[in-house]
Design a protein that fits this description.
Length: 141
Amino acid sequence: MNWSSLVISPEIFQAFFNNGHSCFPVKYCPWSIGNTYSALEFADAVLLPVSNDEFGRTKSNNRAILALSADVPVITNKHPSYRKLEDGLFMKNNYETWTETIISALSDQELIQKKLNMSKSIINRSYSGKIVAQKWKDLLY
């Protein structure tokens, strides 16, 4: 399995992946909207580890929603912004390594489809363009 990492900083990529943190090949792709959509087109899954520090707690669920909207399963850990999406995500628990979570998530095609279907329902109910537009309208008027 080959992985691409879309991060803003090549220094962050080098610090993480060149220090033995990956047991599989990973290639650096500079972040851009075009690279993001291209990566999603060929992705088997999206891995979104989020830290529980001050910086990590500021992260939204936008990346997960983007991946799920492209029918790409998301593997992540518990995070407050993912609460509404949890039924549609593969969540790392405290007892598994990331490798175990990834293998488990990608080994069951039926479960992947079930989670993607659940995520579509959640997104349509809470995050669709129509719903978001209505929230902005309610806020502004």
